[in-house]
Write a structure and sequence with these properties.
alpha/beta; globular; Rossmann fold; about 50% helix; binds magnesium ion; binds guanosine-5'-triphosphate
């Protein structure tokens, strides 16, 4: 069991142990999190999202380098909803960011979906709280796609970067998928490829519509979203990208947007906790009831099917 004081001192072994408890749905995790929570709330949390293979991990690797140059402590959570592996090792991401492994002020974790109670959003949020309490200034969350049922990045991040690449018509796709509505910063990576300029213009045009027509909501009112070209493996455009994220954070602070944003994220977190805790308690209560044993017996003897059994059980216990 990790010691709270070690986590608060930023000890990476203690942090990793704590995150493993979260991943394994260990009962101790909740109590430890309660102790860590008052020490969180200082980190700037950045979400990086986009289609598979657009270069998110390479981009984050370059961003880590840039943030380290400025002496920020950086943590990364790579969320992979499709991965069947749990326990926090996704080789590709690890290798891509491997060169930071020796840096004690960098911490990289992967999260897979299997076994997480309350889904990936909850486990990622819990992990972000741990990293925040460990004293990381910047937490970057990498996720494939956005707004999907499995994982919604806007549940965790203060600032969201949407990554696309030239020549794929991603811009149009983004509008369709509602991605334009959640992005604060738009990144056209792989701009060593042809048509990078066209991709930038297309995005800028759509963002212009977002700001003038007001049909598409803007996550940070008053903020003009920027489109940044990057070539991640070469580090091109990364300095500017990091500047943009930091100025978005400054903007939110100056316009008093950061506190309402944090409160909103807290409300979402509270709702998801409420759901998980209610379900836990209710299940415990049901499983210990006479009725539950009766119904199970009926299923066993084939005198009742599971569908009817579940319905009868719930209707008996919850009456409103
Ligand atoms: N030409 C070019 N290739 C790039 C660029 N950025 C990344 N790549 C390459 O694109 C491939 C995918 O990069 P990743 O960083 O793994 O992409 P990702 O979005 O994290 O991928 P998933 O996590 O699988 O969704 C790798 O082979 C990178 O070397 C770029 O700016 N230009
Ligand atoms: Mg990746």
């Amino acid at each position: 069991m990790p010691e709270i004081k070690d986590i608060l001192l930023g000890n990476q072994k203690a942090g990793a142990r704590m995150i493993r408890l979260i991943e394994n749905n260990d009962r101790c995790a909740f109590d430890l999190l309660k102790k860590l929570y008052p020490h969180s709330g200082n980190a700037f949390i950045i979400g990086i999202t986009g289609s598979p293979g657009v270069g998110k991990s390479t981009l984050i690797d370059a961003m880590i380098t840039e943030f380290r140059k400025r002496d920020f402590k950086v943590a990364v959570i790579a969320v992979d909803p499709t991965s069947p592996f749990s326990g926090g090792a996704i080789l590709g991401d690890r290798l891509r960011m491997q060169r930071h492994a020796a840096d004690k002020k960098v911490f990289i974790r992967s999260m897979a979906s299997r076994g997480q109670k309350g889904g990936l959003s909850r486990a990622t949020k819990d992990t972000a709280i741990v990293l925040d309490a460990m004293g990381y200034d910047i937490i970057i969350i990498e996720t494939v796609g956005a707004g999907q049922a499995e994982f919604d990045i806007s549940f965790c991040a203060h600032s969201i970067g949407i990554v696309s690449i030239p020549g794929t018509g991603d811009g149009i796709q983004a509008v369709k998928a509602g991605i334009l509505e959640i992005g604060d910063i738009f990144i056209v990576n792989k701009s060593d490829r042809p048509d990078a300029e066209a991709a930038v213009l297309e995005l800028e045009m759509m963002l212009e519509m977002r700001s003038t027509q007001g049909q598409i909501s803007n996550p940070s009112p008053g903020w003009t979203p920027l489109v940044q070209k990057t070539i991640a493996p070469k580090g091109t455009g990364i300095k500017e990208l990091v500047d943009t994220f930091l100025s978005h954070f400054d903007f939110m602070k100056k316009k008093d947007l950061i506190e309402p944003k944090k409160k909103d994220l807290e409300r979402l977190y509270f709702n998801s906790l409420l759901k998980d805790l209610t379900l836990d308690k209710l299940m415990l209560f049901m499983e210990s009831s006479e009725e539950y044993r009766n119904v199970l017996q009926k299923i066993k003897s084939s005198s009742m099917d599971p569908l009817n059994a579940a319905e009868i059980m719930v209707n008996k216990i919850i009456r409103f």
